[in-house]
Amino acid sequence: MLTEQEKDIIKSTVPVLEEYGTGITKTFYKNMFEAHPELLNMFNQTNQKVGDQPEALAKTVLAAARHIDNLEAILPAVIGIGHKHRALNVKPEHYPIVGKYLLAAIQHVLGLESSDKILSAWEKYYGVIAQVFIDVEKDMYKEADW
Ligand code: HEM
Asked: Domain of life of the organism in this record (predicted)?
């Protein structure tokens, strides 16, 4: 769980991060695909140009930050996205990869030291959101008996 101070950090940085949204997304995908070219296939299967629709990921993480005090509010959206993830075979082990590059992009765009508490608050919060997705998707895989 996040402390009240960490929640405040998340809430206060969302507007700034939204302003840098495109920068974050570009840095995130570029670095992630450079380190994990195997993921390009997964994203390309969707006939979407990378850098275009995938912006949805970072935007959703930011949008979820607005519901930090009431995370159940994002569940309907998570279920919809989860179906798409399931169809593309997104697995729990992919989440830390996304988290690592998303965090690095936030650090880069905001020019933060790696010890900055803004970063550790976001790291924790990404972990919470990722777990919501992983749990929802786990149930979907179970239902489908995969
Ligand atoms: C699609 C969010 C984690 C791979 C999406 C979409 C959203 C989203 C909003 C668009 C859904 C739609 O078009 O209906 C998130 C969030 C994540 C996350 C918030 C983390 C908390 C991941 C992970 C992977 C992944 C770990 C795998 C590495 C994909 C792919 C698509 C997708 C391949 C389809 C892209 C496309 O349509 O171009 N995700 N995602 N996502 N996500 Fe995720």
From this structure: Bacteria
pTM: 0.90
Provide the pLDDT confidence category of residue 45 given band limits of 50, 70 and 90.
low
Crossing angle of helices 55-66 and 117-143, in 10° steps, is 110
pLDDT tens-place string over residues 112-134 = 999 999 999 999 999 999 999 99
User: Is the CA virtual torsion 91, 146, 71, 124 positive or negative?
Assistant: negative
Q: State the CB neighbour count (10 A cutoff) for residue 28.
A: 24
CA of 54 to the centre of ligand 1 (A): 7
Q: Residue 136 phi/psi, 5° resolution?
A: -65, -45
CA of residue 86 to ligand 1 center, whole Å: 10
> Rounded distance, CA 56 to CA 25, Å?
9
Amino acid symbol at 15: P
Active site residue 125: no
